Amino acid sequence: MADHPRFGPAGVPPAFRFMKATLLDVPELLCGEGLDAFEYEAVHWGKKPQVKRELAERFGFEAQENDVWLSLHGSYFINLCGERGIIEASKQRLSACATAAEWMNAHVVVFHPGFYGKKPKREAFKLCLEAMREVVETMRALGIKNAKLGPETMGRLYQLGSLDEILNLCEMVEQTQLVIDWSHLHARDRGRFSTIDDYRKVLVDIEDRLGTEVIKNIHCHFTKIEFTENGERCHHTLEERHFGPDFRILAKVIAEFRLNPVIISESPLLDIDAMRMRDILQEEWSKN
Ligand SMILES: [Zn+2]
Q1: From CA 242, how far away is CA 247, in angstroms rounded?
Q2: Each residue of 124-165: pLDDT tens digit?
Q3: 286 CA to middle of ligand 1, Å?
Q4: What is the Å distance from ligand 1's center to 73 Cα?
């Protein structure tokens, strides 16, 4: 359980790469910026972990030493509601991500559940539910106890991943962790968040369905986002005033509810915007 609000980037920040930092340097560099979370990007992985076990374990150790909370973003090549062969391959990819997450002691494997395709939404959901349960069984057989599966709310209307669907999956599958991508919800509903009540409603809904413990420690993604009638188009930085949603309003609600979320910046300015969000929350927290 996260013990206080935590912030960090989705992947290695460009400045770190420019400094020729290795993966093992990342936790200390984040700590130096006053950040305390990191989402490892396994987004192009296939059916096997694409990191060596020894490196993953050393990375997990460095993260712990520097008090950096780890999560892992699973492969983009996952579709748990596609055709049979696609589902089987997707399950293997998700299990590979969970295996590596356990090596590095990452708390959650964030993933995009899949696409409706031509299927009715209910049918797509059922396939996804079955596949997730099977992955959890595999994880148990592999001895993966700490890492949880984190289905994420999705920004495009053709993707499975409305708030209701994700809450259902978290209610119906064991070893799951809710992942709220606020920007995706904003884009999916074409501008959902403009007032403090818009955010409150979502949090109250989550609390009603999954309980107080879950709401206290939600795993979040945040960035500004551009959308069309089909939902998400692209991500923007926090400074770009024309785009929403506004992080400060979410920060007010986090401070009001005294939550301890993990907030991952998916902005093009990964760590810079993570620090900006941390500072905004600190301001709002001290007002309450
Ligand atoms: Zn994602």
Answers
A1: 13
A2: 999 999 999 999 999 999 999 999 999 999 999 999 999 999
A3: 31
A4: 7
